[in-house]
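Support request, priority: normal
Reporter: lab tech (M.K.)
Component: structure prediction queue

Hi team, I submitted a job for Polymerase (RNA) III (DNA directed) polypeptide E from Cynoglossus semilaevis yesterday, and the status page still shows it as pending. I've pasted the exact input below so you can check whether something in the sequence is tripping the parser. The sequence length should be 676 residues. Please let me know if I need to resubmit or if it's stuck on your end.
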Amino acid sequence: MASGDDDDPDSSTHHETLTTIMFVTQYPVRPSIMSYDDVNHLSAKIKPKQQRVELEMAMNTTSPNYCRSKGEQIAFNVDGTGYDDSNTYASKLMDKQTFSSIQATTNTSRYAAAVFRKGELHITPLTGILQMRPSFSYLDKADNKTREREAANEGGDSSQDEAEEEAKAITVRFARPESEQARQRRIQSYEFLQKKQAEEPWIHLQYHAARDSRSEHERQYLFCQSVDASQNSELVKTPKEYLDMLMPPLTEEKFVKPVGPSNVLSMAQLRTLPLGDQVKTLMKNVKVMPFANLMGLLASGTDSTSVLRCIQQVALLVQGNWVVKSDVLYPKNTCSPLSGVPAEVLCRGRDFVLWRFTQERSVMRKEIASVIKLPPEDVKEFLEHVSTPRVNRGWEFLLPTDVDFIKKHQDIAHRQHMLWLGIQSKLEKVFNFSKEDFMPNNSPQPGPIQVSGEQRLKMAQERAQENQSSLQKDLDARKAGNGGHIQHELMGDTDVEAMDTSSSIPNGSVNGYSSGSPPDHANGTTPSSELQEFVTKTFRKHFVLTLNEFKRLLNLHLASMPAGWNVFPSVSDHMLQDAMLLCHCKQILVPFPSQSTLALDEQKVFGLWETGDDFDQHRRLLYDVFTRNYRIKRNLIQARLTQELGDAPKADIDRLLKECCICHAGMWYLKGTVQS
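Reply from support: The job had stalled in the queue. We restarted it manually and it finished. Here are the results:
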């Protein structure tokens, strides 16, 4: 422990100094085993009002850890080559360092120094707790010296400058009265605080070491001098009550939650809420989100069934993604912050925008505005929540269709579909329109159900197994009853019905058909082994074919067969597509423009999906690229392959393009899809 007193012994008595000004000093940059007790203290000073203390301590320049050249360099930078009383380092060597204090806490009413002696606890309140840290003020002095030298070197033309400035006019301005707000800013400024600190003079102290006799004498004032038993009262408090008296609950230092930006969501605070409130808060902030992303934002282990129950309360399903409900964004009895339109009107307009996105991937802003008749800023806000503008394509929905969620949760998808039908009927009455007003001209209306390619493949396999035995029985019965007549029926009339195109798939279906029930394949027949063998051979040679091109190749094959020999029965479009799916081919959903000149069969593109070699993944990535555009530049294909498979060799890209694509006017198209 160290203590100090004023240089003037008559300025104050010892006990008054100890009881009124008592500090605890800490050295946070030094371990406790390396104290400064044995270090020579050169000087000490204090500013009591500001609770600032400075200690100057000698450095051991003979230590093997001391770099003498660095010490001389620092002393030269600070003092230069001159010798006077203002020098910081008189020995021309950095032989001392200064420690300056900062307050560890501004409120020490809960802290005291205690001494236990002879069964008595003596407590003395603290004035302050100070942390002593090294001061680097000598670096500021070195910078000032450098500026003075530079100014001296540039001072040769000062007489000329003074001559030029003799004729300058002087402008006199009067300061305006200072407002209260300006005064508060000035008081809180760094310059004002520095000036205020400089106004209090330093009081120089004499330092006494911890084991010095003067320090021992000062420590006696830590003990209470009054031992009159009449002044002591019996402790009638319980231990808990007594501790509460010593350590009262914090009132002035209550934890204040930091105020963040309004658009920032704290995940730590979010997870303290009930699950329903968590889902609602996330949807209000994000606006549109896939269900998988929502589960990723919630705490691990959260039950997905509970989340599904909550999400349906605050969001609607649009293209397999969840979009926050309008009445959640615009509660009742509120209005638009942009235009002041009531919340009820905003909800109807936004519901119309969301309903349009359940029908199409892209919408036109002018078309939306002409129907809902709301201010442009509100219409733009609706669209920005769930879509992004595309050149010459209007506003496209923000996320791709989440087909996986629709397949996995068909009951929820159906429930949401019925909910949208109810919303549609209300919107038709409010805005006086019908669904047919927004259907594209000359385009087939999609059916109510979309069946995937995997489902078609499974159904085809099941039909093949179910019909195999019944077909064999029927064939035997017809042979027994009709003799050789059966051969003519099996060959079929190729001139009349070589290719049935009456049951084609609507453009845009996902590897499937849009009717509610499986198609009738030539009166119950399924793709024969001969047809599947032809499909396999053809796609292993061409890799990518449109339905129209495949039918042309099939007709050529039939024409090349010997007269009277035809192993293929009557074949419909659906049977051909089932055969392709059974032979590891899949339909590629190429997004042709609405004004495309290709025929419907030319817009149905199929690609070989699986051959068993390592090059299958290259083809699948290529097919995925062409689901985003019907024509692609080579560098985009190369970038996608590099991103997914690493550095793709040029030979692999050349092989891939040769197998599956054709180049026209610098752009690459899938085979058979170049528009005339």
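The first helix runs from residue 14 to 20. The radius of gyration is 44 Å. Let us know if anything else looks off. Ticket resolved.
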